[in-house]
Amino acid sequence: MVAVRAPRGPVVFRSSRLYARQFEEGDAPAAFAMWADPAVTRFTGDESPADLAVIAQDIPGWRAVSGHGVGCGFWAVLAADGASGSETFVGDVFVRPFRDRDDEYEIGWHLAAAHWGKGYATEIAKAAISHARAHRLPRLVALIDPANVASSRVAEKAGLRFEGLSDRYDPEDGELAVYVGEGPGGGC
Question: What is the rounded distance in angstroms from the CA atom of residue 158 to the CA atom of residue 124?
């Protein structure tokens, strides 16, 4: 668990125990600790970063996702400790457009292993879905390794429905479980 000082950037959205804000350079050590954990990257298709500098270089790109449209972003997820005024890095959550598609947005989440089993993933996924719906994004798609039963459960608990297996979003990753939620007035 990595504690950081009190909230720095503006909160983009929140749930009862967590909130999402833009990544900041000071988040790099906690993000590196999460992404360097093979348990976290097991189902992502991503390699663990070689060192802290890799994450520090990634943060501007994560922040740039917000420039892809209203409601989009790649945010740090934190739990606040009201008594001490500190915050603990929990993971990340994102909503971003797919390349070459203007009617579908990918939603995803990653949590540091120390925070698994607390309901945080479902909680922040639901908050991100609400955020996307408030910005009238038409269709949310979560792509999950079929072997990642825990993330599939999170998607279902968050209100996304299983559409099937497909490689149409990322043929290099092979078939992935596709969970969807339609935008305002739709199914999530």
Answer: 9
